[in-house]
Design goal:
alpha+beta; Alpha-Beta Plaits; 3 domains; nine-stranded mixed sheet; 11 helices; 26% helix; binds fructose -6-phosphate; binds magnesium ion
């Protein structure tokens, strides 16, 4: 490549960055945590359309269950105050409509009164990435309801690190070096970058604990021939209870995954959802259940407030404009997955309030246990001859 040509392409790359911002919130539903109400969705859409003209080049408003989702395209980078404020104000406008109709949970996820520069930590979930768009830039927005950010750990791992899901990792030269996982410890507010396949078992060691270690982003490696060192997937990791200090509703997550040409193919990305794996966050944010892939029209939460569902919308981005979406799970190819999911529902529901259907005590969104213990305080008697376990914490098995 001659020097001039190199300069031109560097110049072009520098000025061609585009940002995809996906921001979502539950601002009220009908009749209760079930499904969004069309006039509220319409208000959010109209607000973004009328107030985003000078800020964004395109957008799409969608929903899953009781959550409204705004996907925006712009050139302002991630964490941009104007973009976040646009989404915040759109949700505020939608909340006013929700209140007018007396919707259940109107304004539920808007935890602060006034916008203060960044929507993060204010209630809505945020997933954003700044990218250098390829000639064709296809991506899928995944949205989940009645679950938590860690629900993305399993499918993202399958897409970007499991050759049995994504044979491209083996047979596509551009994927063969693997990817970099940015993993957040959402309890300690720390993050770590680990490469796959070289750190595969360590990655799994962490992300198997999905209520604590969550995948935030996936990057290509610098050796990737087509898109070196780029952000190719991002997930919302916002925990409402950490913000409000108490249970205020579930942190139903969403994620953006770029696909094709050195990345998981569209079908490799979807394949990760062909097994209805168990996620937490169902009924009262306190139960495990299978994640069921559904079409947009089937994204309402009915049986036992669920079961937890995922919707996938496929887009192509060109010159700041979106084509699509394609409702990816609106397909009989996923009927088998849905049937298995409902068999798991019938099975697990019979356990009622018992673990592992019900979550362990410390992961439940709310519990009456402290009240029950208080009520019977002083009535618990020592068990004769029993030795009290000193260390109730996690122990490491020692080899001799
Ligand atoms: C779970 C969820 C619902 C509610 C349940 C009780 O994430 O949103 O299952 O937890 O319907 O709701 P409240 O307490 O608002 O009556
Ligand atoms: Mg809700
Ligand atoms: Mg929800």
């Amino acid at each position: 490549m001659n020097e001039r040509k190199f300069k031109i392409s560097t110049f072009k790359i520098l000025f061609m960055k585009v940002t995809i911002s996906h921001i979502k919130a539950d601002i009220g539903s009908l009749p209760g945590h079930t499904v969004v109400f069309q006039p509220v969705v319409d208000e959010v859409r109209t607000f973004v359309k009328e107030n985003g003209k000078s800020l964004i080049s395109d957008f799409y408003v969608s929903s899953i269950g009781d959550d409204i989702q705004i996907t925006m395209i712009h050139d302002k980078g991630i964490d941009n105050a104007d973009i976040h404020e646009l989404a915040w104000n759109a949700f505020k406008a939608g909340t006013a409509v929700a209140k007018r109709y007396g919707l259940y949970g109107a304004g539920q996820d808007l935890l602060k009164d006034a916008f203060s520069g960044n929507i993060k930590g204010m209630g809505p979930g945020v997933a954003e990435m700044e990218i250098t768009p390829r000639k064709a830039e296809p991506f899928i927005v995944y949205m989940m309801d009645k679950t938590e950010p860690g629900a993305f750990n399993y499918p993202i791992y399958k897409m970007f690190a499991d050759p049995f899901n994504t044979p491209g990792l083996v047979i596509d030269q551009n994927m063969h070096d693997g990817f970099v996982f940015e993993i957040w410890d959402i309890i300690e507010s720390k993050k770590i970058f680990l490469g796959s396949p070289e750190n595969l078992y360590d990655i799994l060691g962490l992300i198997g604990s999905k209520s604590r270690y969550v995948i935030k982003r996936i990057f290509t490696k610098p050796s990737h021939e087509k898109i070196p060192d780029e952000n190719v997937a991002v997930i919302t990791t916002d925990k409402l209870s950490f913000i409000a200090g108490e249970y205020v509703g579930k942190d139903d997550p969403a994620g953006i995954v770029r696909i094709q040409s050195g990345l998981p193919a569209s079908g490799e990305s979807l394949e990760a959802f062909s097994f209805p794996y168990l996620v937490s966050g169902w009924m009262r944010g306190s139960f495990n259940g299978p994640l069921m892939p559904v079409s947009q029209k089937d994204s309402k939460m009915t049986r036992f407030d669920g079961p937890p569902r995922v919707v996938a919308l496929g887009f192509v981005l060109k010159d700041g404009k979106l084509s699509g979406p394609v409702d990816m799970f609106d397909d009989p190819a996923f009927d088998g997955t849905r049937k298995t999911a409902m068999e798991i529902v019938d099975y697990i529901r019979r356990m009622g309030p018992f673990e592992p259907h019900r979550l362990p005590e410390d992961e439940m969104e709310y519990t009456t246990l402290p009240h029950v213990l208080e009520k019977y305080k002083g009535q618990f008697e020592p068990i004769e001859g029993a030795v009290r376990k000193k260390n109730l914490g996690v122990t490491t098995r020692e080899m001799d």
